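not sure who needs this but someone in the group chat was asking about Dihydrolipoamide acetyltransferase component of pyruvate dehydrogenase complex from Triparma laevis f. longispina so here u go. i didnt clean anything up, its just raw.
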Amino acid sequence: MSNFSANETQIQAKSNFPTHPHAHTSPYIHTAAMLRLTRNVVRPALHALTRRPAPSSLLSQRRFFSSDLPDHTVQGMPALSPTMEVGNISWRMKEGDEFVAGDVLAEIETDKASIDFVTEDDGFIGKLLVPDGAQEVPVGAPILVVVDSADDVAAFKDFVAEVGDTPASPPAAPPPAAPTYEPAAAAPVTAPPAAAAAAPSGSRVIASPKARKLALDLGVPLHLIPGTGEGGRILAADVQEYTPSAGSAGVVGGAPQAAGSAAAFNTIHTSSDLAALSVQSKREVPHYYLTVDISVASALKVRSSLNAGLGEEDSGISLYDFIIMSASRAMATVPSVNASWIEDGSGIRVYEECDVNLVIGSPGNCSTMLIPGAEKLGLGKIAEHTANPTPSSEVGTFSIVNLGMYGVKTGSPIIVQPQACGLAIGSVETRVVANPSHGKEGEEMYKYEEFITATLSCDHRVVDGAVGAEWLQAFKRGVEQPNSLLI
């Protein structure tokens, strides 16, 4: 049966909504016209383009097998937030409609937000148990019956959910312990939650009808497949992506299956700690990205002038040093970027110093170095750090990765928890731009100028779009006006 999830796509303006400390910089205008445009035009267009399921959430559903009725699932009202008790439903589909993974089934309004009810699997709507526009439906109350086939819809015409059909709400997870992170302290390594283990062959396997049919067609034993749905439920995508491992004694189609390709291979050993942290961060942190083009023509000129006065024993100043200095100085303009999310949800921790992590090393052998208190250092001191990099396991408050040395234009870095942002720098490109001096004697209409592309990855819990854009503008000003960094 279908699994559903909540994908928050619209926050409605309410008088009691908390104001961000940087709200005065926000370009957003909360008007009825903007809300209607988002609901009726923008959001449907985005769903039509993406058509992919949202992450699983705390939803309740129960699978039923009955001699009187076809196999079906009774879906309960989902708990879309830890404090949600009731919600208002606006259906986007009707009884008998077919849906596929990624379709929006309904819009559920809570006291703070309007959230799309998105499907993760395929099926048909057998019965809507609450009417369109139903108000204050309790969490866990039956709201929908989902069936496998259009032929099964008619059997639920007079269906009425009984008390025993109400899915049990999952127990609340205990609040996580408060983090003990401080700047320049070693980051604790926490392994990501393991995927749901495959069920023993003798126990009952929970799987969607499409997954069961697909597994039967492919000859894959369901009990060998780890489910990624709610409560370990096996979805059709799990069956399609399943690859028998060497340790599984499964037999597909009556013949033993080899583990992977028969081609020759070499094993590359990597850091399991780093891999675990990357997976955990990408799963838990709501990333979004902001990209800007920056002229480095002035920085290159100042760099050449400064290096001309250095002795042979000095390693010289690089463009990367200007970038590091500008990024750390921008924290003074927008300090809320130099922050981290407190995992118990009690607030945001803003740091007084900017400890910068730099990614160093070669592909396949990367490590990081730390420049503590970078906002207090001059170009010479920063250059000393970058000229003699020392690998460090200490986690700072902000990270920078330089991809320009590989000819990469830009990238979208994974945020290093508990940091709130990470910056990726691309290669220097020479571009043709309009010449502001055009019209003067001997001046051409266009000129050549050097640019880089910078992308800021942000944790949306800590840094909203307006604040991230404000920090990028401060960073850009520092790089494009390098003399201001020397004052």
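also The domain at 4-165 is CATH 2.40.50.100 (OB fold (Dihydrolipoamide Acetyltransferase, E2P)). if thats useful
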